[in-house]
Amino acid sequence: MKKNVLTALTILLCLAAQAQQIQVIVPTPARTVKSSTGSWVVFDTQISSREAFTPKSLEVSGEEGIKYSSSTFEPLRSDSTAFVSYNWVPTSSPETPTQLNLTFLYTVNGQEKELNRAVAVSGESPLEIGFPLRPGIWMAGNAPGPTSEHTKLTVKMKEPSFDSLQQGYVLGHNAQRYAIDFVKLDKQGNLFKNKGASNADWYSYGEEILAAAGGKVISVKDGIPEHQTPGKLDYKITIDNIAGNNVYIDMGKNVVALYAHMQPGSIKVKEGEIVKKGQVLGKLGNSGNSDAPHLHFHVVDTNNIPFAESRNGFYWEGIPYAFPKYTSWGTAPADIWDTDENGNQLVKPFHFQEKEKVKNTIPVNFEVIKIK
Fold first, then answer.
1. CB 145 within 8 A of CB 364
2. Which of the listed residues 59, 90, 125 is the one where a domain comes to its end?
3. Are 212 and 330 part of one and the same domain?
């Protein structure tokens, strides 16, 4: 009898310990990202437990004097048992650190606790690709950076997947981590002519979209209507139409590019087709989750998850890329999109000053670049 009681007690103690165990998972390797304004080491941290807890802070330290702290956590479950932290750790060193040290502070059942772990940093350079649009002046809306909306869009998995290397469960994926919404401007910084009340008023509308690299077309979606009035959605957005009319191209080694929100009927390639770098894929439009004509572009690692099981590509992980060269014209104000009740662009036309010519970098949020 005593043996059975002790066995039961041991099981209960083990279950209690497991309930309180905190898992800290990095769903995709930390990567160094270079922009015209600086460099970051970028990674997401998914933190979970079987028991509710309150995250306090995530402290990051590393080589070359790296210091970073974040107290911002987004919930991944409604019962306070899982959170995600989106980390853009600034670094001034030209060398990529090999490892970062994390200290996670949290409270559970009123007790403050601490968890430490190391995160390896990938030494892999961002993929160099061509620009996916014709020459001109383009704004990189919601482009990579700590303030970008795209950065913080983890899509939760229906069933978490076990990571045997980290001995924990990955709860979701962030395909849009390095996504950019490209919008064309005129030389005065205007997004559109007239009042922008129609798609055709926008300088971006109808621009040809080009393959940033050669590869195989693995998915084409067409036939999704465009929203007729910029700023207004004509239909409900779902996971099936969020990217609008789009093309996915496999560029090799499990690396895939998405070209989204295209004009219906404009797509010139077919599933299974092999395309060359610079080949015309279709025309820029305003379909899907789009409030104005623009090209949504991002690059992902499929992690060997087939497209049919990827929830339209959103179970893949965003990875960094770089354009060979462009001229930075500075950064547009974040409210450049805003209009008044009459449809007038609130930000007055302005002239960008040529800043610098940059190579092998990715634009930052609202950076205006000139492609020749």
1. yes
2. 125
3. yes
| pTM score of the predicted model | 0.90
Classify strands 317-318 and 295-301 as parallel, antiparallel or unpaired. antiparallel
Side chain identity, residue 156: K
Q: What's 58's domain CATH number?
A: 2.60.40
Give the Cα separation of 97 and 306 in Å (integer): 32
Number of domains in the chain: 2
Residue 83, number of CB atoms within 10 A of its CB: 22
Q: Is residue 188 part of a domain?
A: yes
Dihedral in degrees, nearest 10, Cα atoms 188, 189, 195, 196: 130
| Domain housing 329 | 179-371
Single-letter code of the amino acid located at 75: P
Residues with Cβ within 8 Å of 32's Cβ and at least 6 positions away in sequence, in order, are: 39, 40, 41, 42, 91, 96, 97, 121, 122
Residues paired with 102 in a beta bridge: 60, 117
Q: pLDDT tens per residue, the chain (372 residues)?
A: 444 443 433 333 333 334 458 999 999 999 999 988 889 999 999 999 999 999 999 999 987 678 899 999 999 999 999 999 999 999 887 778 899 999 999 999 999 999 999 999 999 999 999 999 999 999 999 999 998 999 999 999 999 999 998 989 999 999 999 999 999 999 888 899 888 889 999 999 999 999 999 999 999 999 999 999 998 999 999 999 999 999 999 999 999 999 999 999 999 999 999 999 999 999 999 999 999 999 999 999 999 999 999 999 999 999 999 999 999 988 887 666 666 666 565 555 556 666 778 899 999 999 999 998
Query: Taking a C-beta distance cutoff of 8 angstroms, is the pair 162, 169 a contact?
Result: yes
Tokens of 354: 């040529």
**Residue 114 lies inside a defined structural domain of this protein:** yes
Domain closes at, from 125, 157, 192: 125
Q: Is residue 214 part of a domain?
A: yes
Residue 114 sits in the same domain as residue 183: no
Q: How far apart are CA 148 and CA 258, in angstroms?
A: 18
SS (H, E, C) 195-218: CCCCHHHECCCCCEEECCCCEEEE
